[in-house]
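Throughout our pipeline, every protein is held as a single compact record rather than as scattered files. Nothing more is needed to write down the fold, since each code stands for a local backbone conformation. The record that follows is passed on verbatim for readers who wish to inspect the format.
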Amino acid sequence: MSENLDLTPEAAVRAVMQDILGLDADQVSAFTAETELFGALPELDSMAVAGLLTELEDRLDIMIEDDEVDGELFETFGNLVAFAEMKVAG
């Protein structure tokens, strides 16, 4: 698990989106802060959100509380990365 702690939050989010959503590596690497997620990616449904958050917790060694999760979090790739960075920073 320690190799996961070497990942930047952005790299972890990209890896989790590939692994959990089954997205192509080229597609994920092309994501920018403005890339729309929920509603734009058919793979990202409510069930996938739960798996994605759980995997981010594991890979980044963070805890995500239910009240921290809202629709805005998954609006864009940038929002999700900023949230992960904030959680890692403590």
Summary: DSSP finds five helices and no strands in the chain. Residues 27 and 52 are 17 Å apart (CA to CA). The two ends are 19 Å apart (CA to CA).
